[in-house]
Specification:
Elements (H helix, E strand, L loop, with lengths): L2 H19 L3 H22 L3 E3 L11 H9 L3 E7 L5 E5 L5 E3 L5 E3 L14 E5 L2 E3 L4 E2 L5 H7 L7 E4 L5 E2 L13 E3 L4 E3 L3
Parallel strand pairs: 1-2, 1-6, 6-9, 7-10, 9-11
Antiparallel strand pairs: 2-3, 4-5, 7-8, 11-12
Helix pairs in contact: 2-3
């Protein structure tokens, strides 16, 4: 990574974090309701029976109401567990049981499955800081999802869950950055490639 590219990513991440922190309660509630409906539509239209998701932190798009709905509908949801080696393990989540993970982020409590369990899902829904129009996903800098997605020979469709304003013309890209197949925002589903 060049110093300029690293600085560009850090500056963009800082700007995006600040935007997320200054959102009002009304904006968050409105987006959560809309995002839940959009995620439900994604699952129903694609007849998804199993997926990988994440437990959203307070500033992230809130996927928790959707997670509870998915559990009630019998959709099998795998949630990540961070590992010291930079990879992710997975566990089946119920939308309720959680603990604090390696980096202070919420993580699922459950029987730990290997990273290979990810190959059995119909779709992977990842967190992201932003996504460019070309499908380049920029995460928060730890590389967990890039490593996980980059290690999969046959991966299911991958969609980043972001706020509408985080769908940008472009984001800084490094060789290790894994693209996504689409995005899901409170207002829409966009597929880049299938």
């Amino acid at each position: 990574m060049t110093a300029d590219l690293g600085n560009e990513k850090r500056a963009l991440r800082a700007e995006l974090r600040q935007r997320r922190r200054t959102r009002t309660t009304t904006e968050r509630d409105t987006d959560t309701t809309a995002l839940t409906a959009t995620l439900q539509r994604f699952v129903e239209e694609r007849q998804v029976r199993s997926l990988a998701l994440y437990l959203s932190a307070p500033d992230e798009p809130d996927v928790r109401p959707f997670l509870r709905w998915a559990h009630e509908q019998g959709v099998r949801v795998l949630l990540p567990i961070t590992r010291e080696d930079g990879l992710l393990d997975w566990a089946v989540g119920d939308g309720v049981s959680e603990q604090q993970g390696l980096h202070g982020m919420p993580e699922v409590v459950g029987e730990v499955l290997s990273p290979l369990a990810l190959g059995d899902v119909d779709a992977i829904l990842t967190p992201a800081a932003a996504v460019g129009h070309d499908g380049c996903r920029m995460g928060w800098g730890r590389g967990y999802y890039d490593k996980t997605l980059g290690s999969m020979a046959n991966r299911p469709p991958v969609y980043a869950v972001i706020f509408d304003a985080e769908y940008l013309d472009e984001v800084p890209r490094e060789a290790h950055d894994e693209p996504v197949d689409g995005i899901i925002t409170p207002s829409r589903i966009i597929t880049f490639r299938s």
